Amino acid sequence: MYEGVVQDLIDELGRLPGVGPKSAQRIAFHLLQAEPVDVRRLADVLIEVKARVKFCSTCFNVSEDERCRICRDERRDPSVLCVVEEYKDVVAIERTREFRGRYHVLGGAISPIDGIGPDQLHVKELMPRLADGTVTEVILATDPNLEGEATATYLTRLLLPMGLRVTRLASGLPVGGDLEYADEVTLGRAFAGRRSAE
Amino acid sequence: MYEGVVQDLIDELGRLPGVGPKSAQRIAFHLLQAEPVDVRRLADVLIEVKARVKFCSTCFNVSEDERCRICRDERRDPSVLCVVEEYKDVVAIERTREFRGRYHVLGGAISPIDGIGPDQLHVKELMPRLADGTVTEVILATDPNLEGEATATYLTRLLLPMGLRVTRLASGLPVGGDLEYADEVTLGRAFAGRRSAE
Fold first, then answer.
1. Cα of A46 vs its chain's centroid, Å
2. Which residue on chain B is closest to A70 by alpha carbon?
3. The pTM is what?
4. β-strands B80-84, B102-105: how paired?
5. Does the distance separating the beta carbons of B45 and A9 come in below 8 Å?
6. Which of these, A4, A44, A9, A41, lies nearest to A27 by C-alpha position?
7. Which residue of A10, A19, A34, B96 shows the fewest CB atoms closer than 10 Å?
8. CA nearest A42 in B: which residue?
9. Could you give the ipTM of this predicted complex?
10. Which chain A residues are closer than 8 Å to B6 by Cβ?
């Protein structure tokens, strides 16, 4: 219905996650009226991101080099490895400044419904990293949902026989939240995981 | 927090209408994992759309030439001019195949709250198009909302003294809808605009 190249743009935008046909149209019309230099900047950064961003050959974190900043950083504790689903989880954990070990990014979580099993994740690349005995603890920091729990359970069964300490992030009440608004499962876990008051 | 160019991409995406910080992140991560050729295609179409798409010098419709397809089409009725807010309204009306005249795209609607008055719209370019007497009817097809109504009222006052026939699109029940779900204003207008049964 639209002039050729406008329709092409709407089609391309509509392929992005969370962008439906109406949003794609809205973004396209915005871009039609935007300054050419602004649209050019978006196009350039798209090209640049694909040219420059790779995945770390060791941990599969996003990296502009063969190995990522964290894997190259000699000050990081090599004995603790934190297994996460995605790059954005690395960023979230780094933001806390609580963790000084290294990461392993699985690239997703086990989800039979989406056809994702351990073979589709970077599980096989995790094993050689644990072979030489440097890593003594693996923290399974998968998402606290069905797929994340399944992934953590799978990895626990795989790693425990290797004599490693395998840990999970604590479940409980989110800080700053209201107890009465916590869902039953979270509140139940907060009870189960209660600690002695200091 | 993210690697330089990834953050740049998130920032650029976050400037698009309707794309919040979380959506921008989600789209960015999708693009990080997408095939380079797919991302390249999006970048190319962005550049192409700005290079090729102009606005018609007569009616301000989107066009790949100096004058748009509709203005160039000799079979279109030059005596009826349909005034719309945006390019997408032209597309919507063309889809009905009910209208065979020409268009004038205002580029928006009067909205004092957003600082948009007649001077920010293509109103002054409308006047010369009505000067030679070819156009005998102007259809005001602005949106049926506050800004659209204000714009239509403004244009009516401007055009009526010129001796033109000035019309508005009919208000009433949407076809395929349920009467009981129509809002009061729409239902009221449907009554006010009732016609003899054939």
1. 20
2. B3
3. 0.71
4. parallel
5. yes
6. A9
7. B96
8. B12
9. 0.72
10. 49, 53, 62
